[in-house]
Amino acid sequence: MADRILNHLCDYALKLSYRDLPQEVIRRTKHIVLDTVGCALGGAESPPAKIARAAASEITSAIPSTVLISGQKTSPDLAAFANGVMIRYLDFNDTYAGSPTCHPSDLLALVLAVVDAKNGGGKDVILGMVLGYEVFCGLIDAGANERGGIWDQSTYGVIAAAVAAAKLFGLTREQMANAISLAVTSHISLEQIRRGQISHWKGCALANASRNAVFCAMLAGKGMTGPEEVFEGNAGFFNSTGIRFEIRPFADSADAYRIMKARVKAFPAGYFSQSAIEAILNLRSQISDIDAIKEIRLQTFPAGYEVMGSGEANWRPETRESADHSLPFVMAVALMEGSVEIRHYDQMYYKRPDVRTLMQKIKVRIGEEPVAAWPEVPLNIVDIEMKSGKVLSTRVAYHLGHFKRLMTVEEQERKFRPLAEPLLPKKQIDDLLACLRRLDEVERVSELIALTVAPNLSA
User: How far apart are CA 56 and CA 427, in angstroms?
Assistant: First the structure.
């Protein structure tokens, strides 16, 4: 029998074209691409990014892609991987809140790699991103996991990545179906990636899904076939993972496109902490002496509690990756420093005795109001009780960057420039921002990639 899910994915991908996209969707996609390129610049000097670029440098290709920021030529799949590691490292790129949450802008890694290999332009990038978001976020919206969240978001992401890669490579329907089938059967990722003391791989899992998807699309384009009934077969995706997808229509109107509900981050920290950080900063001016604090109480929603507020590693982070997934750490730093910035993830901060002392005063629990509001509203409620008995309280529902509280052009630029400034001269940053803002007019994406190349990037 035919696999209905596979047919559904191919039907939508083959039908969607750039001319279908409303102007507001194009505009929003350009904003997200700009934000994501900024995140890649910020993550370019990280240890995993250096490892990924070193691996990519060992491979040459007859159909090369250019790696962001380094400018090196490699195969499209390894360019996608290297791009993706840089994009994701800082945990600063956008989030889509479903069950599970996901980081769909990671897909820009493969979109740029494939479009560059095909000598395509900005409109191809926009189309690939809208398609990738629609499939990735749509499958999460349509899915149910019978195994209690043991599968990582990249298990969904590789499906969307394969659809986008196949579309951008211009594969036929049969080739696209094979590309998806190959990618799905060969990439299942465990949620343990994001549990305990977190390793480098947290920021590489979706990059690897992109690499895998591009490789599978390249194979399918050469005639490689994948198993039939990859989703609905007896040993297919559904029965193997416990995940089920309902057949739901993908978007065909402006307000329905899921990219319109992406949530950009104002702080380089796990998504569930965005409104908690804002809440702490809102109360900070009322506290003259941190030592006078008796207790800080946070009411949050289950996802925030489980990922960032319930494990031993949340109170005693031993890695940079664990620190940015710790509600107590980011709240303590926000209160002590008046911000949460990339520099605060140096080991000297997350192991500092006074920071850890303040972290021990923070209590995190699931609250009824945040539960009722989630996932539409990432409500966090903070009460700070002073030793005097006075209690300071506030709540933040829509953090800066939420789709109901979008960043202005100026706010976007205030995020982008500090990420770019350690690598690029001011004139190049100005030119890059201008290019990103006119992405729909860029005839060759190589122009955009060239503007990200850092003059003195370390290996």
Answer: 29
| 47, 281 Cβ separation under 8 angstroms | no
Residue 453: partners with Cβ closer than 8 Å, 6 or more residues away: 69, 70, 71
State the Cα–Cα distance between residues 109 and 26, nearest whole angstrom. Answer: 18
Domain borders along the chain are 4-261, 271-396
Task: Give helix 122-142 / helix 23-43 axis angle, nearest 10°.
Answer: 90
Say how far apart CA 437 and CA 429 lie, in whole Å. Answer: 12
Tell whether the model's pLDDT for residue 1 goes beyond 50: no
Hey, which residues does 151 pair with through a beta bridge?
190
User: Rounded CA gap, 351 and 316, in Å?
Assistant: 8
Tell me the CA distances in angstroms from 169 to 124, 133, 223, 245, one per residue in order: 10, 17, 14, 26
% of the chain residues with pLDDT over 70 = 98
The CATH number of domain 4-261, selected from 3.40.50.300, 3.20.20.70, 1.10.4100.10, 1.10.10.60? 1.10.4100.10
Q: Does pTM surpass 0.70?
A: yes
Buried b (16+ CB within 10 A) or exposed e, 243-267: bebeeeebbeeeeebbbbbbbbbbb
Which tens digit of pLDDT belongs to each residue from 321-347? Answer: 899 999 999 999 999 999 999 999 998
The answer to whether the beta carbons of residues 229 and 181 sit under 8 Å apart is no
Burial (CB count <10 Å: 0-12, 13-18, 19+), residue 310: middle
CA distance 433 to 452: 10
Whether the pLDDT of residue 446 is over 90: the answer is: yes
Q: How far apart are CA 355 and CA 290, in angstroms?
A: 11
- Please enumerate in sequence order all residues whose Cβ is within 8 A of that of 135, keeping only pairs 6 or more positions apart, or say none: 9, 12, 13, 159, 160, 163, 164, 250
Q: What's the pLDDT at 253?
A: 74
pLDDT, one tens digit per residue, over 46-100 is 999 999 999 999 998 889 999 999 999 999 999 999 999 999 999 999 999 987 8
In tens, the pLDDT along 146-184 reads 666 788 788 889 999 999 999 999 999 999 999 999 999
| β 293-300/362-366 pair status | parallel
* Strand, helix or coil for residue 65: strand
Contact (Cβ atoms closer than 8 angstroms) between residue 152 and residue 119: no
Helix intervals (H) in 143-242: 154-169, 173-185, 205-221, 237-241
Q: What is the CA radius of gyration of the chain?
A: 22
Name the token pair of 189: 């990722």
pLDDT of res. 443: 98
Q: Which of helix, strand or coil describes residue 260? A: helix
CATH top-level class of 271-396:
alpha beta
Mean pLDDT for 425-447 is 98
